[in-house]
Design brief:
This protein has helices at 29-40, 45-65, 74-85, 95-101, 106-125, 131-138, 176-184, 189-201, 205-209, 219-222, 252-266, 269-274, 294-308, 314-327, 332-339, 344-350, 352-355, 360-374, and strands at 2-8, 15-21, 26-27, 139-142, 157-160, 224-227, 244-247. The protein is mostly helical. The strands form three sheets. A three-stranded antiparallel sheet has the order 1-2-3, with helices on one face. Strands 4-5 form a two-stranded antiparallel ribbon. The chain has a two-stranded antiparallel ribbon with strand order 6-7.
């Protein structure tokens, strides 16, 4: 049997995953080496934890099939994908019935494949897996197409062999009335500020909880906040996206007033004496003055659901922000920058339901019309 345990790095006090064989009480070396490598690459803790869970599932399958991890090839990986998609309960099934009985989403299965291929790529570089075997496992080979065909003489492109098509699902969106209900249901300025900032900036939960007072020092004068990636936040919060500066484009005055009220009337003196410099902290009790954690943020939205009947979470407010920005005619490249997406492809893929309804020509025509009216 295999289990995932939590350990603490004695140098950084950071929590991380350890994958153990419960019979020998020793780490599963192939998995643990890869997870340690992911940590050194500064991948988000949630990402590393997800990889650990998916790789443990893969190891269960290896045990079920009595296979050594170093003997896995493309056919075995395809078998795993089918087994994993069906929840591990059914061995053989026709393709026509696969979707009907699938117990895991395509996204979950693709995450598992990504983790597995990443682990094998790492061990290939380390010399534990032959490069030839890895190429067969992780990639197929295709020829260049389009206008490059017959012009560029180079090695063929690598393309992933195994990936399940994921249905495009609209991530959801709140109405302005629902956001107002959530904000009005907050009992403190801090909570109200959290709801408003999430809605008007689209920042992630880790970016929100990782805000320092220094990141909002220009908020009153310039109406902007800074998102800075840090690895030493005392609450473990990490910014996943790129470092950036985000302007508050809508409801700025109301947010500024809430911000000032929070700092002047609620921000506890204990937070100042602790010297961590975090913006969002616990207001009272035994943990008063300590940085707010992800669990506390979850509790806030559970409480708001009880008060309003609206089921919301930080990422839903992020989707709401992005959807409203695109509907208002802002260019997708600008929305990409605000969201902190490294690639425009990510923005277009997630919000294709909005972009499909929009036309850049129509946007430019509208902008030109407004300029003519102004002049």
């Amino acid at each position: 049997m295999i289990s995932i345990e939590r350990a603490i790095d004695p140098q950084t006090s950071e929590r991380f995953c350890c994958v153990f064989d419960t019979e020998t009480s020793l780490p599963i070396e192939a998995i643990q080496r890869y997870l340690n490598y992911c940590r050194k690459r500064k991948l988000a803790a949630n990402t590393v934890n997800t990889y650990a869970c998916r790789l443990v599932d893969f190891w269960h399958w290896l045990e079920y099939k009595s296979l050594d991890w170093q003997d896995v090839g493309l056919n075995e990986l395809a078998d795993f994908v089918n087994w994993y998609l069906l929840g591990g309960d059914i061995e053989v099934i026709s393709e026509s019935l696969t979707e009907a009985v699938s117990k895991r989403s395509s996204r979950t299965v693709n995450l598992a494949v990504t983790a597995i291929q990443g682990m094998y790529e790492f061990h290939t570089v380390e010399g534990r897996i032959s490069e030839k075997q890895f190429s067969k496992l992780a990639h197929g080979w295709g020829k260049r197409g389009g206008f490059l065909r017959g012009i560029v003489k180079s090695a063929p492109e690598r393309r992933k062999h195994i990936k399940i098509k994921e249905p495009k699902i609209f991530p959801g969106c709140l109405t302005d009335e629902q956001v107002a209900q959530l904000a009005n249901a907050c009992y403190t300025y801090r909570d109200r500020l959290i709801v408003m900032l999430l809605r008007e900036t689209g920042i992630r939960r880790g970016e929100l909880l990782g805000l320092h007072l220094i990141d909002v020092q220009d908020f009153d004068s310039r109406g902007k906040i800074k998102i800075i990636r840090r690895n030493d936040n005392p609450n473990g919060a990490k910014a996943k996206g790129t470092d950036r500066e985000i302007p508050i484009l809508h409801n700025r005055q109301e947010i500024q007033e809430t911000f000032q009220a929070y700092l002047l009337e609620e921000y506890p003196p204990e937070a100042e004496t602790k010297g961590h410099g975090m913006l969002f902290v616990n207001l009272d009790g035994f943990y008063g003055g300590k940085p707010m954690t992800s669990a506390r943020l979850n509790n806030l939205f559970y409480q708001l659901k009880d008060r309003t009947g609206i089921e919301a979470h930080p990422h839903l407010l992020r989707h709401t922000f992005a959807t409203r920005m695109l509907q208002a005619g802002y260019l997708d490249q600008y929305v990409q920058q605000l969201l902190g997406h490294k690639s425009i492809a990510t923005t277009k893929d997630i919000y294709s339901h909005i972009l499909d309804e929009m036309s850049l020509d129509a946007y430019l025509a509208k902008e030109e019309e407004e300029e003519n009216v102004t002049h």
